[in-house]
Amino acid sequence: MRLHFIENGPALLVERDRRVLVIADLHMGIESGLERHGVHVTSRSAARTDRVLACIEEAEPDLLLLLGDVKHNVPVTSRQEYRELPGILDAFRDRVAIAIMPGNHDGGIGRFLKPGELLPIDGVIIDGVGYLHGHTHPDPELFGRLIILGHHHPVVSLTDSVGCAARARPAYLYAGVAASCLPEGASPEGRTRLLFVPAFNEFAGGIDIGRLRKSGLGPLSRCIDEKTAEVFLADGTYVGSPATLCPEDGS
């Protein structure tokens, strides 16, 4: 298996027998959600869609897997989403087959999808790799392999030698799973690994990788084995472990 990091997403191409392009947390319609809180932003859905299409062109996948939170507004579907989502999804379908892992923002997403495109909420195995949005407990069948998940919007703030922090940047967090989280009867020496992927949406914000385990945002975030955790930037550059990047004393 090979993983290809697409910086202009951020997006991830998982290559085994199939080429699966993974994009998490599009949050289409986020502008109407911001408007309800008094922040007025022109819709950037078209530009966001063009970025996805550019990733498809670069990766040449067999499948585009949207890893949850395709839409933004909950518990309702906004007028912006009703207006924009059909055309956005058709633009993706014109290039490649699509599948959607429903996230916690995706109530009602099924009305925009075709038969077979909506995946089980507790995860799925595609070509030997587990996929999950991340807000629910995974199907036990996902353990014992690499599990790729969204939902957590991981970011990292890098500091220079004098302690000045750059703007938080999207990041991938790769880690083993704590033995206490494995299903009953599973070997602690198993090969379950977690790969938390960053949000595609530029307005979505994020959680610093050093606080991800304690955030409690999803069941698997509490399962991160911090001794094995590694951090990668959107282009795949390895930058260290959460312990070295985010020391607890803040130094």
Low-confidence spans: pLDDT under 50, at least 5 residues? none
From the alpha-carbon coordinates, what is the Rg to the nearest angstrom? 18 Å
What fraction strand?
A: 25-35%
Tell me the structural class: alpha/beta
In this structure, how is the largest beta sheet organized?
9 strands, mixed
The number of helical runs is 5
If you consult CATH, what is the topology? Answer: Purple Acid Phosphatase, chain A, domain 2
Mean of residue pLDDT?
90
CATH class: Alpha Beta
The geometry reads as globular
CATH arch. level architecture = 4-Layer Sandwich
Q: Which percent range fits the helix content?
A: 10-25%
- The beta-strand count equals 14
SSE arrangement, N to C: EEEHHEHEEEEEEEEHEEH
Describe the protein.
The chain is α/β, with parallel strands linked by helices and 251 residues long. It has a single domain (2-245), classed as Purple Acid Phosphatase, chain A, domain 2. 18% of the residues lie in helices and 26% in strands. The chain contains 5 helices and 14 strands. It has helices spanning 30-36, 45-59, 79-93, 212-215, 242-245; strands at residues 2-6, 11-15, 19-23, 63-66, 97-100, 124-126, 129-132, 146-149, 154-156, 169-177, 193-196, 207-208, 224-233, 238-240. The strands form 2 sheets. Strands 6, 7, 8, 9, 10, 11, 12, 13 and 14 form a 9-stranded mixed beta sheet that branches. Strands 1-2-3-4-5 form a 5-stranded mixed beta sheet, covered by helices on one side. β4 (63-66), α3 and β5 form a beta-alpha-beta unit. α2 (45-59) runs parallel beside α3. The N and C termini lie far apart (37 Å). The mean pLDDT is 90.
